[in-house]
Design a protein that fits this description.
Layout (H helix, E strand, L loop, with lengths): L11 E5 L16 E3 L13 E3 L4 E6 H21 L12 E4 L4 H17 L12 H11 L11 E8 L3 E2 L8 E4 L5 E7 L2 E6 L19 E7 H6 L1
Parallel strand pairs: 6-11
Antiparallel strand pairs: 1-4, 2-3, 5-11, 6-7, 6-10, 8-9, 9-10
């Protein structure tokens, strides 16, 4: 079997698309997580259904699993959960400004999720189709190449519900949407936020105030789950 990242023939691991540490907030006493799937539009999320473990399939070899884990995932987990980087509650429209992020590692982590979703054959990720960008992302990840903040732009909203609490226990299948000026983007909900990854051959500066920038700053606006579904 051929690894989707290094393209070498090897025994493959059961690879998570979204890392397992995002699912710990979803598990109940029977270690079941409640996840939501969609037919491609965020307005069309189906009823939550239980799964025993975060979505996995045989995608990456052991070396590539370790590569993503040591390069990006370990540091991201420490930042996002161990340091409690987000508050527990936010009022609608309140903005958080994260500063001092390691731009390269932070972005590569998110691009790795986007890449894994695109190469996945699981139905939950069937709407992520990057076309020629898939191979470009593969090379960026395997060679740890830098990208400008106007290439594969990342935007973020914190999702709140139930007395303004941030919804860490919410993971959905990705959806496809168009941003202003026709930019194609894919939305993923995990880690208390909805993340938008803009996939376009053009450089994108329209969202300069809110997108992750090369100085390591990210503006996160809060939005209630119900309002998010209507946008």
């Amino acid at each position: 079997m051929v690894c989707k990242l290094c393209c070498k023939e090897n025994e493959l691991r059961n690879s998570h698309i979204i890392p397992e540490f995002f699912y710990v907030h979803l598990y109940d006493a029977k270690h079941r997580a409640q996840c939501m799937s969609s037919t491609g539009s965020k307005q069309d999320y189906k009823r939550r259904r239980p799964i025993q473990k975060g979505y996995r399939e045989k995608l990456l070899c052991d070396d590539c699993e370790k590569l993503l884990n040591t390069r990006y995932e370990n540091d991201y987990k420490k930042l996002w959960f161990d340091k409690d980087i987000l508050p527990q509650t936010l009022i609608e429209g309140e903005q958080i400004i994260l500063e001092g992020l390691d731009y390269h590692k932070f972005k590569q982590f998110h691009l790795s999720i986007l890449f894994r979703a695109s190469v996945s054959s699981l139905s939950e990720f069937q709407h992520v189709n990057l076309g020629p960008h898939e191979e470009e992302l593969r090379k960026i990840l395997i060679h740890d190449l830098p990208t400008s903040d106007q290439k594969y732009v990342i935007l973020c909203h914190a999702i709140t519900k139930n007395n303004l609490e941030i919804q860490y226990g919410l993971i959905t299948s990705p959806f496809k949407t168009r941003q202003p000026n026709g930019y194609l983007s894919y939305g993923f909900c995990f880690g208390g936020c909805v993340w938008y990854y803009i996939v376009d051959s053009r450089e994108v500066s329209d969202f300069s105030q809110f997108m992750l920038n090369s100085q390591g700053t990210l503006h996160i606006m809060s939005i209630p789950w119900e309002k998010f579904l209507r946008i």
